[in-house]
Amino acid sequence: MRIKGEARQYFLGYLWWLLEPMLYVAVFYFVFFTLLNSRQPDFLQFLMVGKLTFIWFSKSINQAANCIEINKGLVAQLRIPQALFPIATVIEGAYRQSVVFGFLLVFLLLSDYPLTPAWIWLMPVMLLNVILITGCAMAAALLVCWQRDFRLLIQLGTVFMLFVSGIFWDINTIQNTELVTWLMRLNPMAALIDAYRQILLHGLAPDAHMMLWALSEAVLLLTAMALCFQRFQFWMARRVISR
Hints:
The chain is mainly alpha-helical. The chain has one domain (about 1-240). Helices cover about 75% and strands about 0% of the residues. It is built from twelve helices and no strands. The longest helix is centred in the middle third of the chain and has 27 residues, at about 85-110. It starts with a helix and ends with a helix.
């Protein structure tokens, strides 16, 4: 219902699901390829895979940060698990991303990137992506319930991640392999973006070690957040309603 209501507010409706991320890609492509003269091979496809993946993450996190605050009317009237609000936001983002990814796959096929057996890895990597986003979304919602100031810090944090996740540059070009390993361990989104590129652009299976590491971090975070939401259920409701 929220997706339909949002689409009715705009003349182009559901087309914005594709137009908005593609406009982001167009802006960054102009800056890095035209103005900064990037020589990354097939830079447009390289940028699209990284940027469209990161938009899914950043938009879901920033929307989830405010979801309990926005729905405090429901929180005040119904005894409802607070975790449903960030989870609903993640599901909403997944609907949008399925359309965006569908467009991306068609674009890559039309750009002479072949359909390879490695594409079978897309579903496990996307599932891992959803687990990570859900854990981060719940953490963001919990922090904003505690203090509204975290809303601004979360926005700044996603901007910082934009530049350290290898969206505009290939993280594998770093000569220090130990540094690359630690960057991917500390930032699972960097590992996921690299995995999407290995699958879609190079026809290779993702690094199993990095995927297991990212999965461990995502599951640990999601488990911790589920326990926190269960433990602080009524505190969160009181905190939001009393503001």
